[in-house]
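# step 3/5: fold
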Amino acid sequence: MFGFLGPDGAGKTTTIRLFMDLIRPTSGRALLFGMDSHAQSVHIRKLVGYLPAQMSLPRFTTGANVLRYFSKLRGGVSFSKIERLAGRLKVNLNAPIQRLEEADYFKIGLVQAFMHDPELLLLDEPTRHLDDAGREALYELIAEVRREGRTVFISSRSLSEMERITDRVGVIHNGQLVAVERAVHLRARAFNKVELQFA
């Protein structure tokens, strides 16, 4: 469980988009499973579950139809499994997507990321739009992935979240990886600068 911690604009989403070959690096390369993220992107995507920070789903259909479509792309995931995941995240798959709350929209994204039991999950700030119950359900799913020996790479702005669910954390600031720490040691490195002015 690797966390990627940094403020907005630090480069978290850019890094994950490079992993997914959605953008190309000006230099260097990214390797996933020992494979080049650009040259072997089609094979890598079969092994990865990806939740982007910004999603675009067709508005005039239901979550069930969208997930059936993703299931076909994934080679056929049983719909009963999709329904179980949706039930755990408490998202109504029969409602038109245009009527969904933002949290439910991202829950559909989580279902598509988890549904094919990928070897690697790339989750870009997955809890940003979730309520407390949605966060707890996601944490439970992540814990199951950990027990099964699969890998999660999760980005976040939340130090407490990183401490709770990750083993190691990379801290990124202004596009630079400034530290890689065990999650339990992260709090000791955190600091706040406070300026007091007196009359």
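# step 4/5: annotate
The CA atoms of residues 123 and 196 lie 38 Å apart.
# step 5/5: archive (pending)
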